[in-house]
């Protein structure tokens, strides 16, 4: 298995970009946090701890309390690649997170984003 550069990227360096993207489209940091917590099972305190510890993406998802089972229903294209076609589990989780933030920024209702 090849190690992608993104696996070693600090989640804390990408998180503000997720927030900026959402805020540019009228969404809030709280909504970004809600989406991340839904996907990973982190509490708000746990999420803040991961950001403060400069955890990389591999560690962020390895330490996630519980990946939401409904995240398997996330489909679509991110960075020109179909999410459902990604075989590497870590890369797929990262792209699912990207897709959820994209949906948030595009104005999709939060309950639809969370596959409720």
Automatic annotation (TrEMBL):
Pfam family, one: DUF2200
Name of the molecule in the record: DUF2200 domain-containing protein
Organism: Luteimonas rhizosphaericola
């Amino acid at each position: 298995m090849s190690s992608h550069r993104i696996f070693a990227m600090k989640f804390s360096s990408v998180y503000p970009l997720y927030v900026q993207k959402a805020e540019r489209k009228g969404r809030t940091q709280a909504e970004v946090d809600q989406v991340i917590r839904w996907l990973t099972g982190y509490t708000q305190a746990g999420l803040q701890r991961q950001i403060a510890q400069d955890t990389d993406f591999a560690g962020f998802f390895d330490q996630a309390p519980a990946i939401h089972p409904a995240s398997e229903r996330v489909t679509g294209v991110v960075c020109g690649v179909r999410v459902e076609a990604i075989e590497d589990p870590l890369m797929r989780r990262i792209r699912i997170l990207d897709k959820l933030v994209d949906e948030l920024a595009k104005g999709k209702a939060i309950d639809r984003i969370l596959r409720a």
